[in-house]
């Protein structure tokens, strides 16, 4: 839904209302001359900035970018906060912040935007005193101020003429904050906006937004096998903005490809999430968030396909990811970790090399002693997998020293 004004939302605590959305639009036209031809390419955008939740000193927001001009192959969005807010962690792009100015660049998967297409980066940030929404945005250097013009072409004998509807020129120097490249999992841990005591599994369907409420109430709080999950996400579904606390049962079950965005486990139960699709092309994305106290493991990969974990933090846990080594059905499984920070965690990934599993790592920060990639020999159900090695090998475990920062 396009938001064209502001919407107030009732909050608990000392802040009674917040500006939840603001919408701005823009246009510019540029003439490019080559081989005696001039072309006028429309450039335009709409940005919908929505505060999704807010708590004492922190908040979450989505920034929906809609391309109203010609197709883009990459994008860069810029805005300025007016009350000292800071971005701590961002998903759906890569960010830097210098003073009040925030710059967000497209991620590798969402740089192409057709005319009328949208993409929605989201972030967690901090505020103090007040939290007004930004009032102006720039997409690829063009201020969002109007409506797009049409594209036209004409014959010209000039080969040097250029024209643009905007004349503003500005040089901006930005510096990368402690969360480079869209977040490295080192941002602050969020507070909840309320709590929900849930004693039966909730069907999240294809989309569920928890509004940063804290959900708890299933299982015994331990890591015993066979507990019911808190949430079940349908194939292709998304669950976001949820805090899960003990007792948390078996966390989240993804029945097929899924996105788990900005979900935080205060205390991992049996597992934080289990990925179950038998389809080799299944993709599971964990984007942002964090997990604490996963004594055995955090993410369990029982099905096939690829799990991507990015911009995530893990504390006081056994393994962040484990490809099942003795499930009833054996699959080839893959995991990609990017922008992960681990504290007091023994292992980042455990995979089964005899089944062709792979693990790839980039922008990893570890505090303490952590094994990056442990290799096992997978076995039939009822037996125990055997650990056969660890470390990068260019065959199953992929990373270089520059990918790992040791603190």
The CATH architecture of the largest domain would be 3 Solenoid
Helix and strand string, N-terminal first?
Answer: EEEEEEEEEEEEEEEEEEEEEEEEEEEEEE
Oligomer: single chain
Helix content: under 10%
The helix/strand class is mainly beta
Radius of gyration, Cα only, in angstroms?
23 Å
Query: Could you state the CATH homologous superfamily of the largest domain?
Result: Single-stranded right-handed beta-helix, Pectin lyase-like
User: Whole-Å distance between the termini?
Assistant: 44 Å
Total beta-strand segments: 30
Largest sheet: 8 strands, antiparallel
| Unreliable sequence segments | 1-23, 25-40, 149-182
CATH domain class of the largest domain = Mainly Beta
| Number of separate structural domains | 2
EC number: 4.2.2.2
Organism: Saccharothrix texasensis
Protein name: pectate lyase
Main location: secreted
Descriptive account of the structure:
The structure is a single chain. This protein is an all-beta fold. The chain folds into two domains: 45-143, Immunoglobulin-like (Sandwich); 195-406, Pectate Lyase C-like (3 Solenoid), CATH 2.160.20. Helix content is 0%, strand content 53%. It has strands spanning 8-10, 17-19, 21-34, 37-55, 58-67, 76-80, 86-91, 94-98, 101-105, 118-119, 122-126, 137-139, 142-143, 152-155, 163-164, 195-197, 202-216, 231-244, 252-254, 258-265, 273-275, 283-292, 297-301, 305-323, 333-352, 358-367, 371-377, 386-390, 397-398, 404-406. The strands form four sheets. Strands 3, 4, 5, 7, 10, 11, 14 and 15 form an eight-stranded antiparallel β-sheet that branches. Mean pLDDT is 82; it is low at 1-23, 25-40 and 149-182. Keywords: Calcium, Lyase, Secreted, Signal. It is found in: Secreted. It holds the Pfam family Pectate_lyase. Its cofactor is Ca(2+). One of its GO terms (biological process) is pectin catabolic process.
